[in-house]
Specification:
Elements: H1 2-15, E1 18-21, E2 24-26, E3 32-35, E4 39-42, H2 48-78
Antiparallel strand pairs: 1-4, 2-3
């Protein structure tokens, strides 16, 4: 029984070693204007420098989508 519980604890620790990064853009009233799908980062055995690098790489990858959403929003606001 103790071995089973130890295995469950290890799996829970492995699952908890992940971070989820999300980008949500809201207007002044708090309404969601744009939202990107969450991106999970594995934190296990990584230094803070490695984690920061993974977040920066994801931000560079997501930036074109964020900018496209902002451009679309701006064009909609021009017509209202």
């Amino acid at each position: 029984m103790k071995a089973i519980l130890k295995g469950q604890d290890e799996r829970q620790q492995e699952q908890s070693m992940r971070a989820r990064v999300e980008v949500v853009i809201r207007d002044a009233a708090g309404n969601i204007v744009s939202q990107l799908a969450p991106h999970e980062i594995d934190l296990k055995n990584q230094s803070l420098h490695d984690i920061e690098g993974a977040v920066e790489a994801w931000k560079r990858q997501a930036l074109p989508e964020i900018e496209a959403g902002q451009t679309h929003l701006n064009s909609l606001l021009e017509y209202t």
